[in-house]
Amino acid sequence: MTPSLPTTRIATTSFEVRTRGRGFVELDDKLRTGLAESGLREGAAQVFTQHTSCSLLICENADPVVREDLERFFAKLVRDGDPLFRHDAEGPDDMPAHVRSILTGVSLSLPVHNGELALGTWQGVYLWEHRAAPQMRTVSATFIGY
Amino acid sequence: MTPSLPTTRIATTSFEVRTRGRGFVELDDKLRTGLAESGLREGAAQVFTQHTSCSLLICENADPVVREDLERFFAKLVRDGDPLFRHDAEGPDDMPAHVRSILTGVSLSLPVHNGELALGTWQGVYLWEHRAAPQMRTVSATFIGY
Amino acid sequence: MTPSLPTTRIATTSFEVRTRGRGFVELDDKLRTGLAESGLREGAAQVFTQHTSCSLLICENADPVVREDLERFFAKLVRDGDPLFRHDAEGPDDMPAHVRSILTGVSLSLPVHNGELALGTWQGVYLWEHRAAPQMRTVSATFIGY
To answer: Which residues of chain C make contact with A7, given a CB cutoff of 8 A?
Structure first.
C-alpha cells in the first residue's frame, strides 16, 4: 500500500506532421503544447508514430550537422536499392525505410517534471522521415502523471 | 491540479511464446486479448520480453518479404560466427543474438484508444527470435489507462 | 469503466552516474533502491537518461565478454574518426557517440512485479557510455503502479 503517493491521471493527444521527404522534424513544440493542455506536472509522456517507414528519436539539437552526419551514416548502413532487398514495390527507398525505422524505433518514453518534458539541455525529440518523398505522419502522445 | 482528467488504473498480464528458431512471431492477438480482459479503453500498453537474445519490434505486417529482407539484412550486419565475437559458448549465433536484441530492443510502448491498440494500418507487433534453435519466450504486458 | 482495477500511483527519482569513459555501468541496484523507496509493487518503471552520447540498454549480465564483444562490434560499425562525420568539434568519438546513442536508445520501459523489477534471469540494465572520456550522467526513473 502506498497511500501517500499521488493518484495518477492521464491525457492523450495526437497530431499530424507533414514531412518534406528524408529528414528530421523537431516535435518538441507540439509535445510541449500537448503537455501544457493536459495540466499534468509530474510523470511521463509516451510518444508513438503509427508508421513503419519513419521513426522517433532523441537527437542532439544544437548543431544541424549532427543530423546531416546521421543521414549520411544511415544511407551507407542501409543502402537504397541494395539488391539484398526484394521488397521494393514502392521504390529503392521502400525497404531501407523499414529497416531504418526498426533500427531507431517508433516509440519513446520521456519523463515529465515541473510541467515540462524533462529532457537534457542538448536533447530534442525528432520524427525522422525515411522515405524519399514527402509524407503526412501521425504522432500520438499519452501523458501519465499528476 | 488536474482533477478533471480520468483517474488511471492498471492491469498486467504475461504469456509464453514458442518460437521455431530465427524468425518472427506476431503478438497482436495475444496483446489484444490481454487488453480486452483489462477492460481499459484509453491509455498505453508497455510490452516487455525477459530475454537477451530475442527482441520486440513494430514491423510492416502486410508483405512477408519485409521480414525476409530484415532477416537477410541483419544476417549480413551481424554475422554468425564472426571471429570478432569471443562469447560463443552456445554456438555461432550466441553473440549475434545478443547484438541483434540490443539493436532492436526488448520493450515497446504502444498507445491504446477506444479499447484497441492504436497501431497504424500496416503496423504489427512482433517477437523476433534471434537464436537458431526454437525457444520458449516470456512476454509481459502492462496496460495503464481508464 | 474498470472500477475493479487498482488505482495507479506514481513516484519519480533521479540519480547521477559517474562513468569511466567508454564502457558499461550496471544500474540495477540504483533502480531497485528507487523502486523500494516508492513502495510500489506492481506496474512499470520508465528509465531515461538526459544525454545524446550515452544510452540505456538491457544486456546479458553474466559474462562480461558479452559487453566486450558489444564494444568491439560497435567500434567497427561506427568508426571513431570516420571521415564521413563532419561533426567532430569534441574529437573523433564525438559523432560516433551520437550515432551509438541513437542506435541503442536513451529510454527503457521495464515491468514491476512483486515489488521487484521483473527482469529475466540474464537481464541487467546498463548505462553505456559512448564518449572516450569519463562523464557525469543523469538518469531519471518514473515508477507507475500500485
So the answer is: 7-9
- Interface mutation vs chain C, best among A123, A126, A130, A143, most C CBs within 10 Å: A123
Q: Which residue shows C-alpha cell 527519482?
A: C13
Q: What is the DSSP letter of A121?
A: T
Per-residue tens of pLDDT for chain B, all 146 residues: 455 799 999 999 999 999 999 999 999 999 999 999 999 999 999 999 999 999 999 999 999 999 999 999 999 999 999 999 999 999 999 999 999 999 999 999 999 999 999 999 999 999 999 999 999 999 999 999 99
A119: chain C residues, CB-CB within 8 Å: 50
| ipTM of this predicted structure | 0.96
C109, closest residue in chain B (CA to CA): B107
The rounded distance, in Å, linking the Cα atoms of B142 and C41 is: 13
**Of C38, C102, C106, which is closest to A5 when you measure between CB atoms?**
C38
Identify which of A43, A103, A118 has the shortest CB distance to residue C103: A103
Sorted by sequence, the CB contacts under 8 Å of residue A122 that are 6+ apart come out as A60, A61, A62, C51, C52
A9, amino acid identity: R
Inter-chain residue contact A122 with C84, CB threshold 8 Å: no
Contact call for B140 and C118, based on CB within 8 A: yes
Handedness of CA B71, B75, B81, B86 (dihedral sign): negative
B119: nearest Cα among A101, A107, A133, C49:
A107
Q: What is the pLDDT of residues A16-47, one digit of tens each?
A: 999 999 999 999 999 999 999 999 999 999 99
Residue in chain A nearest C78 by alpha carbon: A73
Q: In Å, how far are A15, A108, B25, C88 from A142, measured between CA atoms?
A: 12, 11, 27, 36
What the block records as the C-alpha cell of A23 is 529528414
Which residue matches cell numbers 553474466?
C62
Say how far apart CA B138 and CA B14 lie, in whole Å: 7
d(C-alpha C115, C-alpha C93), whole Å: 39
Nearest-angstrom CA–CA distance, A65 and C95: 10
CA distance A103 to chain B (A): 6
CB spacing of B58 vs A78 below 8 angstroms = no
Chain A: touching chains (3 or more CB pairs < 8 Å)? B, C
Residue pair B12/C111 in contact (Cβ under 8 Å)? The answer is yes
Residue in B55, B52, B99, B106 with CA at minimum distance from that of residue B75: B99
On chain A, the residues whose CB falls within 8 A of the CB of C108 are: 109
Give the count of Cβ contacts less than 8 A between chain A and C.
111
